[in-house]
Amino acid sequence: MSIPTSTYRIQFRNGMTFDRAAALVPYLQRFGISHLYASPIFTATADSTHGYDVTNAGEIEPSIGGREGFDRMVSALKSAGLGLILDIVPNHMAASLENPWWRDVVEHGENSRYARHFDIDWSRRLTLPFLGDTFEEAAAKGEISIKRDPQTHKPALAYYDSLYPLTPQSWQGREEAILALSDPRDIARVHDEQHYQLTCWREAADSLSYRRFFEITGLVGVRVEDKTVFDDTHRLILELVHSGAVDGLRVDHVDGLADPKAYLDRLREEAGPECYITVEKILGKGEHLPEEWPISGTTGYEFIAALSDVLVDDSNIAALRQAYDRVVGEPVDLKAELRDAKLLMVDRNFAGEFTTLLKLAMVLAGAENAALEEEAIRGALRELLVAFPVYRTYGTQDGLTPADDALLQRVIARIRMDAHAPHPEALNFLRRILSGDLSQHASADAAKFRTRFQQLTGPLMAKSVEDTLFFRQNMDLALNEVGAEPLPRTFSIHRFHSEMQTRLERQPDAISSTSTHDTKRGEDARARLYALTEAPERWAECVERWRGLNQHKVALLDDGPAPRATGAWMLFQALAGVWPPTLQPQDEVELKALEERFVVFVEKALREAKLRTDWGDSNEAYEKAVLDYTRHLLSPDNQAFLQDFTDALQPFIRAGLINSLTQAVVKLAAPGVPDIYQGSETLNFSLVDPDNRREPDFVELERLLAEDEPFAAPTEESWRSGQLKQHVTARLLHLRQEKPALFREGDYLPLEATGIREENVLAFARADDDDALIVITPRLAFDEHHDSLVHHARWADTAITLPERLTGQRWRNLLSGETVDLNDRINLAAFEGGVCILLVRE
User: Fold this and answer.
1) Average pLDDT over residues 599-620
2) What average pLDDT does range 660-674 have in this prediction?
3) Measured in whole angstroms, how far is the alpha carbon of residue 209 from the centre of its chain?
4) What pLDDT score does 791 carry?
5) Is 783 exposed, middle or buried (0-12, 13-18, 19+ CB in 10 A)?
């Protein structure tokens, strides 16, 4: 198998085409990338900005160049010696009439060839929840009519621009009469004859008849567990792999599949042993990928979480928490907050999925003669879902694996001891269903329950934590990241070293990410906000002062001030994270550009929090008040605040840039395959999507790389432009290409720092029989007394102790080119002036 030495993620669409990507190949080659890592490239809905809403898995998106453009890009990559990794989406497709398979299902119902391609409950009519009102109300208002579809020339139910095909039996032989109908009652009768029913979008959470992706009704689950469906959805993917055009696959949302292991086994068999395969999978605390999965690892969310152990100041985290509690007005009980978020998801957002599980459980209770009331099972199921600590288990038709069964037993034991403990017999019955401990005649329904349960726990966790709790609790936004722990924990450099050794042992070929199209903020915004943990009192004082400067713009609404103090804390922090390091308060053009991006984030943050407004039930007065406050923050007329904000932010900016470089160096040297998300080789201060999917300035990236390397005498400008980060990254990328075995198989050796600055240093080595690399880089570098990044006194009176296998040898400084002889210690004072120390054994 050809393992990448590095990947570079490109987001196609929104102007990025195959030909434009091909034009970037010389840059990627000079930069040191081994594989381009492409977002989904198959045909998706016309307005798709991301490609995960696939409409035709057998076609490459025409708008980005189609098959011909794709082939030209592949040719350019191969000519330069670069590989290609594709992001594929096996779990879902677009529930859109643009999808020919879905359209056929809408028209022909269960008689469609594709009726079993999608995860649909055919015990009732297919629900299409895309109306603004009920069908009756929409028809009465004249919003629904019967028209001839201009593309198919067949009669269809028309709702604005959407034309839903009529099943042939309902119109053939009386076509003109059907087209002439205009009375809402007649239209309703035609609607009643269809295999589907048009419903209000508000009913989707309760009554959807198909499995969706998370809460997105426009994405329908695909049954790739069926071989025919697998073949139909993977034919082109496998053709591209077998032709040599594609070297690897990134599997989107593997936890959404009915049986991830079976799917991955089939994918590996069909793709062959040489195909590099990774999966998007969030690992909970202490969780590891199943060893039997035939893949190279995950796409790296857990790596982001591990980096916080290096960059968070654990000695000050309690002080930051206390400062935030004062703003809240009482200590925050995150365990209770997490429970509330999960209950909201169970009771409202996933009410339909929950009801499906409850009905199945009641059927099984009847089959097993279990004398249990529905309310008891409801309570037990609710508590089990809320208490589940990981995204999912991996049971099969026969039951749970021994490891998952042990996990289930631990979860149930905790539930029994909890203040909210449900009916014990009902809880035990659910355990029996999941474990496969039922009679043979109930096994099919038990397997169905198990699959549905496992497909729900992942979305429930993601929407509760990432898309609710992390928008409600904002002590430090850097910690509110995909894959992060939702409950308080300690941060330890020793834990980081331990996790890297485990990573080397379990998934040395997994992707190591620091930014993705799904992260809540760009890696450099996160790196800056880690510094809040180093100066919590200073940050709290700043927020209090900024609130005072803008207090006159707080609106007093019936349901309270907008924003409240906690909302202002979030706003100032998010703004601090996204603030360009060179932005000046008088720059009206740049302030306006930042405002346009920032207000989109704020609106999303308010709705995702689901406290005073929501996507489904927006509070317009509240949203307007907070957005007006946000716009005022960035108004050129608000100079008193802008000057204070810019000045106060400088030490956080400097600490963030140092954190950023450390983060990049660690990603490039630690176990795993480093991924560079487009533009993140310099500085990425993006917000949550869609902001993080904006195209970077590739012309500027090429210009910066072409300039002389800034290692010897890094300037303030090279730090703040990101050029220093880019060039250090390039140097390490090329070293990875020169010594792939060192980074893939070399031991990970934690190195001990001693002296005055021992807490401000991260040091480790990678070593095998032939090569070695020593990495020494700063951490916890916040210093409000220095106003320049060129200051380097952080190394004074500090040394690194070397193990015997690294002593008595000659080393080359990767950045300066100088050589040194090392004994048992490295005196860091000898390297004053260096941004970090990277020593390669000669």
Assistant:
1) 96
2) 98
3) 27
4) 58
5) middle
User: Which residue in 673, 687, 715, 680 sits closest to 701, CA to CA?
Assistant: 680
C-alpha span between 165 and 175 (Å, rounded): 13
Instruction: Count Cβ atoms within 10 A of the Cβ of residue 487 and give its class: 0-12 exposed, 13-18 middle, 19 or more buried.
Output: exposed
Q: Report pLDDT digits (tens) over 622-634.
A: 999 999 999 999 9
Which is nearest to 162 in space by CA: 138, 184, 136? 138
Q: Is the peptide bond before 803 cis (omega within 30 degrees of 0)?
A: no
- Give per-residue burial for 340-355: e unless 16+ CB within 10 Å, then b: bbbbbbbeebbbbbbe
Would you state the pLDDT for residue 371? 92
Cβ–Cβ < 8 Å for 197, 127: yes
For the chain, helix, strand, coil in percent to 5 are: 50, 15, 35
Range 681-695 average pLDDT: 97
pLDDT in tens, 334-359: 999 999 999 999 999 999 999 999 99
Distance CA 802, CA 751 (A): 7
Any residues with CB less than 8 A from the CB of 375 and at least 6 apart, and which? none
* Angstrom distances, CA of residue 734 to CA of 30, 34, 293, 814: 9, 9, 31, 11
Give one DSSP letter per residue of 198-243, joined into a string.
EEEGGGHHHH-SB-EETTEEEEEEB-TTSHHHHHHHHHHHHHHHHT
Query: CA-to-CA distance for 591 and 585, rounded, in angstroms?
Result: 8
pLDDT, tens only, 370-405? 999 999 999 999 999 999 999 999 999 889 999 999
DSSP string of 552-574, one letter each residue:
GG-EEETTEEES-HHHHHHHHHH
Looking at residue 833, its pLDDT comes to 67
**What would you report as the CA-atom Rg of the chain, rounded to the nearest whole angstrom?**
28
Mean pLDDT of 644-653: 97
pLDDT at 795: 78
Q: Give how far Cα 550 sits from Cα of 354, 477, 674, Å.
A: 44, 22, 42
Continuous segment of H or E residues that includes residue 279: strand 276-279
In the β-sheet with 798-801, what is the strand arrangement from edge to edge? 752-755, 798-801, 825-827
| Three-state secondary-structure class, residue 345 | helix
Cα 456 from chain centre: 18
Residue for token pair 């600490």:
655
747 near 767, Cβ under 8 Å?
Answer: yes
Q: Mention every residue, 6+ apart, whose C-beta is less than 8 A from residue 49.
A: 13, 14, 690, 693
Please answer whether residues 523 and 663 qualify as being in contact, where contact means their C-beta atoms are separated by less than 8 angstroms: yes
Confidence check: pLDDT of 790 > 80: no
Tell whether the model's pLDDT for residue 834 goes beyond 80: no
Per-residue confidence (pLDDT) for residue 796, from 0 to 100 = 79
- DSSP lists the bridge partners of residue 765 as 749, 774
Q: Note the pLDDT of residue 242.
A: 98
Collapsing DSSP to helix, strand or coil, 295 comes out as coil
**Token output for 747:** 């031991």
Q: Is the peptide bond before 690 cis (omega within 30 degrees of 0)?
A: yes
Order of strands, edge to edge, in the sheet holding 212-213?
A: 92-94, 216-221, 212-213
**pLDDT score, position 801:** 96
Nearest to residue 88, comparing CAs of 229, 228, 226, 233? Answer: 233
Q: What is the pLDDT of residues 440-496, one digit of tens each?
A: 999 999 999 999 999 999 999 999 999 999 999 999 999 999 999 999 999 999 999
Structure tokens at 448: 């169905």
Task: Please indicate, yes or no, whether the overall pTM of this predicted structure exceeds 0.85.
Answer: yes
| Torsion angle, alpha carbons of 146, 147, 148, 149, to 10 | -100
Site of tokens 């990338």 = 33
pLDDT at residue 707, as a whole number = 93
Angle between helices 698-706 and 723-738 (to 10 degrees): 70
